[in-house]
Amino acid sequence: MKENKKGGIKGKRQRFSEKTGKQNKNGTRNTNNTNNRNNQNRQKPVVERRTKRTAKPQNTVSLSDNAQYIQWFPGHMTRTKRQIQSDLKLVDAVAEIIDARLPLSSRNPDLAELIGSKPRIILMNKCDLADQKATRKWVEYFKRQGLRAIELDCKSGKGLGGFVTAVREVLADKIAAWEAKGMKNHSLRVMIVGIPNVGKSSFINRISNSSKAKVEDRPGVTRGNQWFTLDKNIELLDTPGVLWPKFDDQSVGEKLAFTGAVKDQIMDTEQLSLRLLEYLQENVNSVFFERFSLEKSEIEGLAPHELLELIAKKRGMLISGGNADTERAAVMVLDEFRAAKLGRITLELPLEE
């Protein structure tokens, strides 16, 4: 046992004080320097993480001054990828649900490598929000890539009837092999994959006449894998939505943010709305003019922030002094775009081959 100056046995607190800091004249421990060092050590990794989140990527397309550098680092995405890879051995095919408004940007590029040679079906959900002519072009595009694509609207149920037929078509060889062995009506297992908020749970609830899968209009609701049984010997494996670690092409991140696949809370909503208005000005339609009571001559030459101010005033969204409430108007523009109230808009088209 160690003794103190008075001959008494040193307690734990005194021994700890001698190791971590000096005592002042009153015998109390001076912890200012130690606390400062500890605070610096705690703060340093936080600053580094923030820098990683907001640092500009090395390779990006040319973007306007209104662009945001959107990055997404949720920890559960890595776990989801590992789970998908592990569960692939349990299924016969994969159904990848994408957003019909952005069929390329809403496809996780990591999934192709994960899925490998498994038969795959492309489910183009939210086709009721996309331009019909553009959707048909995408169906033909996927057909040329050797992929079966189906147009879907999970809210109304449009196109769901073709899902079972498509599953049997892509698994025709496997079904024939089973039947040759006398295994008729063998269960077909299909994994449902896709990015957050693309409609996986809505699809499963509709096609299985179930409400077991959680459905919310926000990304990241499904957290664990769930099995659902359909008629005609088909079982579905639901998985949480998975994005990729970062967006090398920032225009992809912005398009996903326009549709709500990336949480609004991690970005500046007003800046995002300005970027959307830039796109709408270049691809303006009659519904957009009618919705905001605009004339073509009114928006010619307007900067996006001026257009947002004009829209706010047209809708009576004002703050003190009669100024436009652009923050409120920005939320409204995004909401109305996502609900197709500005017209059925597809944000990207397939490249001509």
Topology:
Elements: H1 12-20, H2 32-54, H3 76-87, E1 93-99, H4 109-115, E2 120-125, H5 132-144, E3 148-151, H6 162-170, H7 172-180, E4 188-193, H8 200-207, E5 226-230, E6 234-238, H9 250-259, H10 269-282, H11 286-291, H12 296-299, H13 304-314, H14 326-338
Parallel strand pairs: 1-2, 1-4, 2-3, 4-6
Antiparallel strand pairs: 5-6
3D structure, described in words:
This protein is an alpha/beta fold and 353 residues long. Among the domains are: 163 residues, Rossmann fold; 71 residues, no CATH class. 42% of the residues lie in helices and 9% in strands. It is built from 14 helices and six strands. It has a six-stranded mixed beta sheet, sandwiched between helices. Helix 5 links the parallel strand 2 and strand 3. Helix 10 packs across helix 13, helix 10 packs across helix 14 and helix 13 packs across helix 14. The longest helix is centred in the N-terminal third of the chain and has 23 residues. It is elongated, with a radius of gyration of 28 Å. The N and C termini lie far apart (84 Å). About 10% of the residues have low confidence.
